[in-house]
Design a protein that fits this description.
- The chain is built from ten helices and nine strands.
- A nine-stranded mixed beta sheet has the order 1-2-3-5-4-6-7-8-9, with helices on both faces.
- The chain is globular and about 80 Å long.
- The termini are far apart.
- The relative contact order is 0.11.
Length: 320
């Protein structure tokens, strides 16, 4: 009886007419495609500037697509490029924030209105990949921007980088460690850098036990302790790549920085000067890491001063 009922159900199912709905529409390419084709709608800002968000600059198997934002004047051509690299201890943060700026995309758009093309880069965090992945991502972004210079109005021969904290470290790495065998317009070498309160030498601190002071960076380097990390610590230190060909660098630091002591900027400045590289250091009084201070007016004014010093430096080096 059950067999008869089953056969009846199957027979009824097989006899149902095919659903004749609206025909589907889809173009088929010639092979596998992972390209993000969703339109990137431009975001307008004052001064004729538009932001193009979430442009993919690299796709690495096993990782999320790596993206950046571009801010540019509409129709602008051959603009010097500024590349912003965010901080966050290599563990967090994104391309749209810096310290206590309330609306950082507007700050970047203002830089574009001053005659620059501006790119803000995201990179793999330390939970995704250990160093040197982060520096490799920044280099890849710079090469991608140069390869697409005509599309985004960039002068590939004039590129400056800046970043805060972990981003300051990565900005310094971009300045001192690059492939000089490649033509400038196709490589990852930059022409100027302004690191904000970055780490430049992982063996130096103002505390008596340097290995303990830098214990939190072992997972960033992919090793266990000071003894196990010796090679990685050297490889991750921008100070170890400085030479006479290093481009002009402006080091900005807070006098009371408790997270990254100001001695970091001092030793990097001294190293740059010792090899004849162009370098300047500015230490802002009374402020901690991220230009933080109990005095809100001092905190506000230092944010503005650091931004002004950064812009003035890039104007002098990239727009002589």
């Amino acid at each position: 009886m059950r067999m008869l009922l089953l056969c009846a159900v199957l027979g009824a199912s097989l006899s149902l007419p095919a659903y004749a709905g609206e025909p589907v529409k889809a173009e088929v390419s010639t092979g596998w495609s992972q390209e993000d084709t969703l339109p990137k709608l431009p975001v307008p800002f004052p001064g004729g500037v538009v932001a193009l968000p979430d442009l993919t600059y690299a796709t690495i198997p096993g990782y999320r697509p790596l993206k950046l934002d571009i801010y540019r004047g509409q129709g602008a051509k051959d603009r010097p490029l500024l590349v912003y690299i965010h901080g966050g201890g290599w563990a967090m943060g994104n391309s749209r924030g810096l310290a206590a700026f309330a609306d950082f995309p507007t700050v970047l758009a203002d830089l574009a209105a001053r005659g620059y093309a501006v790119a803000a880069v995201n990179y793999r965090l330390k939970s995704e990949a250990t160093f040197p992945a982060q520096s490799q991502d920044v280099d890849a972004a710079i090469r991608w921007l140069r390869a697409n210079a005509a599309t985004y109005g960039i002068d590939p021969a004039r590129v400056g980088v800046f970043g805060d904290s972990a981003g300051g470290h990565l900005a310094a790495m971009a300045a001192v460690d690059c492939d000089r065998s490649a033509p400038v317009e196709k490589g990852d070498c930059v022409q100027a850098a302004v690191p904000w309160y970055g780490i430049y030498d992982f063996t130096v601190t103002d505390k008596p036990r340097p290995p303990e002071d830098f214990k939190p960076i072992y997972d960033f380097l992919g090793c266990k302790d000071a003894a196990d990390c010796a090679d990685e610590i050297k490889a991750a230190g921008p100070i170890n790549y400085v030479d006479a060909k290093t481009p002009p660098i402006l080091l900005l630091h807070g006098e009371l920085d408790a997270a990254v002591p100001v001695i970091q900027a001092q030793v990097m400045h001294d190293k740059l000067k010792s090899v004849g590289a162009s370098a300047r250091m500015v230490v802002y009084p009374g402020v901690n890491h991220g230009w933080m201070a109990k005095d809100r007016e001092l905190m506000r004014s230092t944010h503005v001063k650091a931004l002004q010093d950064t812009v003035d430096f890039f104007d002098a080096v990239l727009k002589p």
